Amino acid sequence: MPDGETQPFRSNVVLRDYQTDLLKLSTERLDQKRTCLYLPTGGGKTELAIKLCESLLNMGDSVVWCVNRITLINQTSERFTDAGIDHGVIQAKHPKTASWKQLQVASIQTLNRRNLKPNCTAIVIDEAHGAIAETYKNYLAQYPDVPVWGLTATPFSKGLGKVFDRLVYTVTVSDLTERGWLVPARFFAPDRPDLGGVDIVAGDYHEAQLSAVMDDSKLVGNICDEWQKRAKNGRTIVFATSIDHSKHICDQFNFRKIPSEHIDCFTTTKDRKEILARLRTGTTRVVTNCSVLAEGFDLPDLECVVLARPTKSLIRYLQMVGRGLRPAEGKTSALVLDHSNTVELLGFPTDDLPLALDMGNTKIKTPTKPKLHICPKCKAISKRKPNPCNVCNYAPPKPDFDIEQREGSLHELRRGTPAEQQRYYAGLISIQREKGYNNGWVAHKFKERHGMWPPRSLKWYAAEPTKELLNDLLAAQIRWAKSKAAERKYGSRA
Ligand SMILES: [Zn+2]
Predict the structure, then answer these.
(1) Residue partners of 282: CB distance under 8 A and separation at least 6
(2) Beta strands in 50-125 (DSSP E)
(3) Ligand 1 centroid – CA 388 distance (Å)
């Protein structure tokens, strides 16, 4: 590296210790040419990227900086300008076109479409989890001897190990949270939508089917109810399932006099900037979107993230939740309202992640997920079952195994074998679906019979109700009818 006198590139960026370590790790072993750098959302990827560029440029490298969307070009260019790094942009008629400059910012689409192969001695790929796309594969094939660096907060794409030789990282979400660079999140699961009938396509839910389940006026209403109950009017991003779903949620908030706006891929850059500025100042409290705000959006003051878009993708999930974890003055935690079962499915963002590049031939090994507990009263999600609940103080009643005498039937509370429990549970689900009851009804009816809430090991599917179940429900109806008759006879005490 040349000495200070001859270093033409000097940014105004100062790195944190773990970023310096990561930069060192990523540039020291060049026998492996393609390096993927992992830094969690909120870890300061932009600063790291600028310093990486700065050191490459000072070593005399010509650098091509690739982004995966044309919309990210200006954002990236602005960041380089702010940091004091001179550069050119490769894009038709762009005012910053300057092919002689040592650093060029380009989108992979432009490079491919125009068949451009700028001379370079180093390539950097931003949002490198997308580098598994054919466009990148074709492009990189033209530079077999040029070292490549990829930057990502989610290095979990299938086949990423075929693009990069190694993955380097120095911190995880949990490290950053412990050290105060991220705030911890509080999770609530108010709804558990029934996704039993939604097909899985390419590892995630079928979009249209998912939208049909989620864009239901009752579920949309629940999102607003729960937000009003818990978010204390905090600035919020809602991730919806589709553009229509996002608009419906937005309308519902506005209907309740909570200033809310919607953003989608058709929103102009100018409108989008203005909407996010209003969210920043608090004039707008809620911004709903489908997925455009999962990447490249940063508002540390964000207080709440609403997940109304179920996903099986760890990348998508961490991108969404990561928006809320930035620290800001006076912010001690982020609130996550999960209407999508995702936290239960994928765990907390601070859980251990599969930090090894996937080779594409094996299934990604998901780390053993902790069994999560959802408080039956306030719906707070926690790792183990706190008794009483540390949010609402609810203490579950002790399971009762005695034979209990009830009006109309001798009702025995007993646990039964797991197979018996599953049969009973599946029968309840079939009746619940037929009658349109909510999921809580299933849990309560299960508890009436078994003296405990349905164990997590039970699977959510419907099957024909057993005779035992139908008898229980009939007995409950008789009890109810008798109590109503008694009320009429003696007058209600209410
Ligand atoms: Zn609780």
Answers:
(1) 235
(2) 63-67, 88-90, 103-107, 122-125
(3) 8
Q: Domain spanning 185-349 has what CATH number?
A: 3.40.50.300
- Report the distance separating Cα 315 and Cα 335, nearest Å: 20
User: What is the C-alpha to C-alpha distance for residues 148 and 64, in angstroms, rounded to an integer?
Assistant: 10
User: What is the pLDDT of the chain when averaged over all its residues?
Assistant: 86
**Distance, CA of 254 to chain centre:** 25
* Per-residue pLDDT reduced to its tens digit, 323-361: 999 999 999 999 999 999 888 888 888 887 878 888 886
Residue 363: pLDDT band with limits 50, 70, 90: low
User: What is the separation of C-alpha 42 from the centre of its chain, rounded to a whole number of angstroms?
Assistant: 14
Pairing assessment for the beta strands 236-239 and 304-307 based on DSSP bridges: parallel
Burial of 365 (0-12, 13-18, 19+ CB in 10 A): exposed
pLDDT of 493 reads: 41
Q: DSSP 3-state assignment of 267?
A: coil
226 C-alpha to ligand 1 centroid (Å): 14
Distance 319 CA to ligand 1 centre (A): 27
303 CA to middle of ligand 1, Å?
21
CA of 385 to the centre of ligand 1 (A): 10
Residue 390 CA, ligand 1 centroid: distance in Å: 7
pLDDT per residue over 172-200, tens digit each? Answer: 999 999 999 999 989 998 877 888 889 99
Cα 140 to ligand 1 centre (Å):
52
Going from the Cα of 379 to the center of ligand 1, the distance in angstroms, rounded, reads: 6
Record the tokens describing residue 266, joined without a space.
């058709």
Q: How far is the CA of 444 from the centre of ligand 1 (A)?
A: 17
CA-to-CA distance for 134 and 443, rounded, in angstroms? 47
Whether 4-175 shares its CATH topology with 185-349 is answered yes
- DSSP, collapsed to helix, strand or coil, labels residue 428 as helix
Tell how far the Cα of 378 is from the centroid of ligand 1, in angstroms.
Answer: 4
pLDDT digits (tens, 9 = 90+) for 250-309: 999 999 999 999 999 999 989 999 999 999 999 999 999 998 888 777 888 999 999 999
User: How many whole angstroms from 376 Cα to the centroid of ligand 1?
Assistant: 7
Which helix (H) or strand (E) covers residue 382, if one does? strand 381-382
Distance 186 CA to ligand 1 centre (A): 12
The class (CATH top level) of 4-175 is alpha beta
Average pLDDT over residues 73-97: 92
pTM (two decimals)? 0.72
Distance 87 CA to ligand 1 centre (A): 54
What six digits make up the tokens of 425? 């549970």
Q: What are the boundaries of each domain within the chain? A: 4-175, 185-349, 403-490
C-alpha 396 to ligand 1 mean position (Å): 10
